[in-house]
Design brief:
CATH topology of the largest domain: 434 Repressor (Amino-terminal Domain)
Low-confidence stretches: 97-105, 135-157
Mean pLDDT: 78
Shape: globular
Distance between the termini: 58 Å
Oligomer: single chain
Number of strands: 9
Largest sheet: 5 strands, antiparallel
CATH class of the largest domain: Mainly Alpha
Length: about 280
Amino acid sequence: MTVPAPECAALTEGLRAVKARTGLSLSGLAERTPYSRSSWERYLNGKKPVPRQAVEALCAMAGEPSARLLALWELADAEWSGRARSSRPTVPSAPAASPASAGADTGAFGRARREFRLVVGAGLAVVAAATTGMLILVLSVLNPGTAHPARVALPALDPAPGCQGTTCQGKDPDRMFCGLPGRADSLGPEHRTATGAHMEIRYSTVCAAAWGRIWHARVGDAIELSAPGARSRRTVIKNATDTGVYRFTSMIGAPARSTLRLCFVPVSGEGRRECVSPDGRER
């Protein structure tokens, strides 16, 4: 069995820690990202190189800064690609002893050999210590037990809903555990916009609340969910990370499902506004 490089092991550990802070199962990650459940299982167990975009998506879902985990990804990616191995200096081997001097490592030649071994050994020790120290530092930062001493216990993978009906107004479907697999369904078919973005209305029977979802959008695009008698809910694609994951509006609680309306608002000056209802008809 091949032992993973320390850089790859450190990234895997970091991914697991951030995944735990999302409170999501593998199915939950697949539901909210373009990556399948089996892909996430391989990423989180170090069986397969993880794409940079997946690292960014995981951090976004956990509400965590991505800089530290991306720094680990850079080190691991260098190992996966072979760049790290090709860039390491080759340590010259010590001169082989001649048969006549094999048993007597003395004199000027013997001292030179011993000094050479000491220098090489010390150099390798320094490199190993520096690498280990860096990984320990990064992992200590990623470890929720040290980096987040005030963090409360992580939610279980199948927690009770955080709201229901009108108490869900304006709340995040993920944070309220309304969007977990088996708790939410699409109201009507997904709609592909003229610009290539996809959107749909999501509804949770458990929470009795609805929200809009968009993916494959561009920076500046937005969606807006509305229903009579309720404040409309809107989300905007703010950066490149948002374009690679599902983005949600906050929720409308206890809506009359047939009256829901989801509108796509393209980035200014590019395309037209498109609206759909649960029956799939454009309005």
